[in-house]
């Protein structure tokens, strides 16, 4: 995704209801056209936000973090800088080239680790997100898509429901490590609402994109919750505040800047 969606609002799992007899498989071009629409809807030139990240284990215990997030160049570069708790304050995750190159800086040890492409499926900060899950590459470049259902109804709790398209995404040779991805996007605004991730053993986890808001003329999800269907754990992120008005300092997105103190 081109925007860092986030959120911690705990809502029920969405209910997917088929509308009529719409389960058909279209030519690949129809799927690729949808990926172009989704990329266009979810791409912003730059953003600055503050977020919380909550990891909930299968036993119900929680760990919570706060971080600043910066993106520029239409998502090709991004930075996550942790501010709380104190033990990880100053730790940073830098992504360049749409997530093809990722560095993690640990302030306490003054060490920078580089994640090669084949290692980006590792858990990010012990969460249910991998580093590649947060990489902001282009869907059209990373996947080959097929339309599975043209019109479905997706409901969240008391919501009246929203028509979505269901796509099957198969990674390209240079794409993510998943065997396949099932993506549900709004027909009206082309924003992703739910994403299911599959590895060679089957369904691994599901991402819910919730709390849709418009800020500075940009419509996006302010809640991002990843449920691990095998482990029973969950990781949520919440947007505390976000702005699309001011472009971050380009120097933030350099390896040399990782060890420097972040200033507002």
Topology, element by element:
Elements: E1 15-18, H1 28-42, E2 47-56, E3 62-72, E4 77-84, E5 92-96, E6 101-106, E7 111-115, H2 131-134, H3 139-142, E8 143-155, E9 162-171, E10 180-186, E11 192-199, E12 202-215, E13 218-228, E14 234-243
Antiparallel strand pairs: 1-8, 2-3, 2-14, 3-4, 4-5, 5-6, 6-7, 8-9, 9-10, 10-11, 11-12, 12-13, 13-14
Give the neighbour order of strands across the main sheet: 1-8-9-10-11-12-13-14-2-3-4-5-6-7
Radius of gyration, whole Å: 18 Å
Number of helices: 3
The helix/strand series, from N terminus to C terminus, equals EHEEEEEEHHEEEEEEE
**Apparent shape:** globular
| CATH level 1 class label of the domain at 15-73 and 137-242 | Mainly Beta
Query: SS-based structural class?
Result: mainly beta
> For the terminal residues, how far apart are their CA atoms?
26 Å
Main beta-sheet strand count, sense and barrel state? 14 strands, antiparallel
Mean pLDDT score: 87
Task: Write the CATH homologous superfamily of the domain at 15-73 and 137-242.
Answer: Lipoprotein localisation LolA/LolB/LppX
Low-confidence runs:
1-27
Strand residue content: over 45%
Number of DSSP strand runs: 14
> What is the CATH topology descriptor of the domain at 15-73 and 137-242?
outer membrane lipoprotein receptor (LolB), chain A
Named at the architecture level, the CATH assignment of the domain at 15-73 and 137-242 is Clam
Helix content: under 10%
Structural commentary:
With 264 residues, the chain is mostly beta strands. The chain has a domain at 15-73 and 137-242: Lipoprotein localisation LolA/LolB/LppX (outer membrane lipoprotein receptor (LolB), chain A), CATH 2.50.20.10. 9% of the residues lie in helices and 46% in strands. It contains three helices and 14 strands. A 14-stranded antiparallel sheet has the order 1-8-9-10-11-12-13-14-2-3-4-5-6-7. The longest helix is centred in the first third of the chain and has 15 residues, at 28-42.
